[in-house]
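User: What would this chain look like folded?
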Amino acid sequence: MVLKRYLLKTFFSFYLISVSCFVGIFLIADFFERADEFISRNAALADVVIYYLNKIPFVLFYVAPQAILLATVLAISSLSKTNEIIAMKACGVSITRITLPLIGMSMVLALLVIANSEFISPNTSKRMNHIYYVELRGGSGFKNIRRTDVWYKSQTGAIWSVENYDPDNLTLNTVNIYLTNNNRLFEKRIDAKKAVWIDQQWQFMDGTVRTFGPAGLEKTEFFETRSFVVPEIPSDFITYTRRPEEMSLKNMYEEIVEERAEGKDVTKRWLNFNNRLSYPFIGVVLTLIGIPLSLRSSRQGGLLFSVAVNLAIGVAFSFFYAMCVSMGRGGTFDPVFATWGPIALFTAIGFYFLLTMDSEKPLPFSE
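Assistant: Here's the prediction, encoded as structure tokens.
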């Protein structure tokens, strides 16, 4: 128990230093990038300070895995430098037992990062965006208006599908309208290349009107320009999409369920959900890989060599993870496989390296 507390204290102290450095570097770089705008818009110092205080939870999500890796390397290397690892092994404590508290702590930190992105970061990100887009830039709002793939169901039961919506020019491009009768039976479909709001009504251009009966399609009419009596107005098609940093996992899942019920393709949204959920566990993977690499490299080249080797491995894994996610966006990989596959693969590799640390044999359980 004493050994476990000592190991956790060493690891956690290095983690606090590492995460503070990463967050500080990120915020300083962001400040210099936005400094000209802050000055030109006469931003109050209090607003700038509050903006960056609210940005910290957002930054913590992305730097946590790298901070965990650096803390692991520094903790293991410092224990090796003072020969404390050798002393522990001389007392009959295996490498696996020595490092198990560090792996457990990395898992706890990953769960805390998820909790932060679920309960804290969405609220602080909303406040951060409000300061930047409304108070600083003087805008009326900072929400994104959905402009593509807009669906709307009116009170009359009509279903509108709009490929592209231009709220500035009050124009709908590639419009499909599905009309039903009083018995909620599909009776008419209007297709148009464009619809423009003119004189308080929609003018439809280059389209067709299909009328359906009990036996199916009854009549098809073509038109170049035509007006239809419909109660929908331009404001009905304004829907807002929340910025990714303002959404919790619960919000993301609710959107997936809602869009799936509407018959939309939710592959990318499912990928983003799994990406948000799996990303914090990169820290656990890097801990599993970093422990054996730190023990080996610290014996050969000292602290700086150990840090360089582990950071190189961390960058390589991050690149591999990002590549898999990118292939998931392209449809090559399933969303779950694209996000969790790299973590499962490198977790297995990390456990293999860890279990063979005390043995010269290639397999940890071989005779």
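The first strand starts at residue 144 and ends at 145. If you want, I can go into more detail on any region.
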